[in-house]
Amino acid sequence: MEDIKYNDSLKKKVIESRYQPVTRETFAIISAYEIESRFTNDYDGLSLAYFCKGEAYLRQGKFSETITALEESLKYNKNSNIGGCEGVCYNTMGLVYAYQGYELNAMKYYFEGINFAQAHNDIELLSTLYINIGWLYYELGDTKKAIGCYEKAYVELQTLENSFSQELVDPEIMCQIYLGHAYFDLKNYDTALTYFYSAEKMLSTKKDLYYDVCLFNFYIRIFDYLDDKENSQKVFDSVSDILIRGKDFLEFLEFYIDLAEYFLEYNHYERAKIFVDYLIDRAEKIDLIYLKYRIKKLNIKFNELYGDRNSFLDACVKFIKIDFQYQELADASKVSSMENMELLNISRNQTMFYESLARHDNMTGLFNKNAAEYMIKQFLSKRNSGEMCIFAIMDLDKFKQINDTCGHYEGDRVIIKTTELMKQIFSQAEVLGRFGGDEFVVFYKHVSGFREPFKLFEEFKKRVHSEISTKESGVEVEVSTSIGIVYTRRIDISYTDLFNEADNLLYESKEKGRNRITFVEYQG
């Protein structure tokens, strides 16, 4: 019992260390927890220890050590009975490759994380991944795609009843900040202001925010736009203090570079000089060629605007040296990317194939029961007031007799012929599904009235009876269909209401002699 208490105490310290500056003590705590977890065969503990070690290495800029630790975390996580650190490992691996300029590899791990988050219904992780993908698009110059990702993150968060569990990291606030920043970049200032006020309202209940540099990056733009010099200076003083203190420098470097570029674009000479000078100084201590490349490029722009001829030429010479190294890495990355694209293409084709198998009935190609139900529920949830929808259930009369008399091969042929007629006649329907055996469904999400669709169901009933027949050993078995249809303009109708009503109407058609249609307008 004491060992368990000791391990829980260490675990708490390890988790708390994630939001503190990385020191020797950080690694000492993680190592102690790793040893204790190994001794007790606690695979979840080992997975967490290696993840936190990798995250700490990342904050120090030790990228090869980061990847090694994260891969160990994933290895031990596979022995766990729960998700553990797998999802956050994928996210952190994505960040590692993004920092190195390997966007394709970053996206690969981000999507691994998304698959994990969706499978485990981890909305918080899913939203974080969408935010990181959005920032990747932003860095690549596609702000509109970035906004789409941020909006996805925000939509996912609306499904949570409670806000994010970590007091210092609130993805809902982060979504507001990232969206506001992106709209400001597009010079849509009114929308940016809307997100600013929304973030301000949320922050009024928060004591602190770990990603304060991200916040300041957005706020300084807003205060400049509002010509609020006092608050703009306060924010600048805060963010420049964090920069000079070097708090989690690499983790926030993207924001520092982004701010420096903003200062240059809007001609804030003094602010740009402070940021560029400090970034140039720190660049000499960074091993990552990609980040050095970006900072040296920033220095050229600064000296082009404000420097004399000699300082500009000096900046160009330094950039050329790093550019040569960067191009070598870029060429190697292209080869790797081409190989990854081949694998990605194979994987995508396999995924599409298996997704198709999972959603469609093998024999007919119609949607299977699960897929049809899901799609109809989605359509119902997005209907506008006053729109009429139609849901029908159909089955073949005395189908068991066809199988028993003529054999299952002939029964399958009848099913396929019926399906061909459905696809031909109900080609404009949103959902055609087979619920198993000889039961089929048809769904129209929006029709102007019931008269014209009803004519299609009449045509289908007649053609099944006249065009599909079966004979075996001289015995002819009549093929016909019974149909139950419900149509409604009720906006609040559920899938269950539609199905139960149509199923009752189908039963009524059977009771009245088969080969007929029974319909009703659902009033609730």
UniProtKB/TrEMBL annotation:
Pfam family, one: TPR_8
GO biological process: cell adhesion involved in single-species biofilm formation; negative regulation of bacterial-type flagellum-dependent cell motility
Keyword vocabulary terms for this entry: TPR repeat
GO annotation, cellular component aspect: plasma membrane
UniProt domain GGDEF: residue ranges: 387-522
UniProt cross-references to InterPro entries, sorted A to Z: Diguanylate_Cyclase (IPR050469), GGDEF_dom (IPR000160), Nucleotide_cyclase (IPR029787), Rev_trsase/Diguanyl_cyclase (IPR043128), TPR-like_helical_dom_sf (IPR011990), TPR_rpt (IPR019734)
Keyword Nucleus: no
One MF term in the entry's GO annotations: diguanylate cyclase activity
Intervals holding TPR repeats: 47-80, 127-160
Coiled coil: none
Protein name in UniProt: Diguanylate cyclase (GGDEF) domain-containing protein
Organism: Acetitomaculum ruminis DSM 5522
